[in-house]
Amino acid sequence: MKGRRQERAASEIRIAVSNILLREVKDPRLARVLVTRVEVSVDLKHARVYVVGPVGSEEERRVLAGLARAQGFLRSQVGRRLAMRYTPELSFAIDRSLDAAGRLERLLEEARSAEPPLASEDDQHEDEQ
User: Fold this and answer.
1) Nearest partner of 12 among 52, 44, 57, 42, judged by Cα
2) Reading across the β-sheet that carries 46-52, which strands appear in turn?
3) Rounded to whole angstroms, how far apart are CA atoms 11 and 14?
């Protein structure tokens, strides 16, 4: 179960990394990367940053390579912005939860279109007459 400190630290790290990527990182591989969420360890020394960017396995590899290259810079900038005893070690991962949500939405839409329409009250009254 997450503690309040973990949630607050995760939120602050997400905002800081997002702003740094947006305004300070010049790597073109990271131009269209969005930070979706951050998970922080209980001791606040490790943070996993989940991102989304261009779709495709090759593009995702390029994004992760760019993030790995910028990892030291990102960590130092996060440390300057946040008032934490220790600056967490950052690791990066592609956020697959959005893919799963999109797939679930498509399945629900297919199920809705396959269902016969429900009879309206007007149709029921016409059947009774």
Assistant:
1) 44
2) 34-40, 46-52, 89-94
3) 5
Can you tell me the distance from the alpha carbon of 111 to that of 91, in angstroms, rounded to the nearest whole number?
Answer: 38
Q: If phi over 0 gives left and psi between -120 and 50 gives alpha, with beta otherwise, what is residue 44? A: left
Closest CA to 56 of 32, 24, 39: 32
Q: Which residues of the chain have pLDDT under 50?
A: none
Q: Which helix (H) or strand (E) holds 90?
A: strand 89-94
Model pTM above 0.85:
no
Question: Bridge partners of 39?
Answer: 48
Question: What are the E-state strand segments in 12-56?
Answer: 34-40, 46-52
Tens of pLDDT, residues 16-46? 999 999 999 999 999 889 999 999 999 999 9
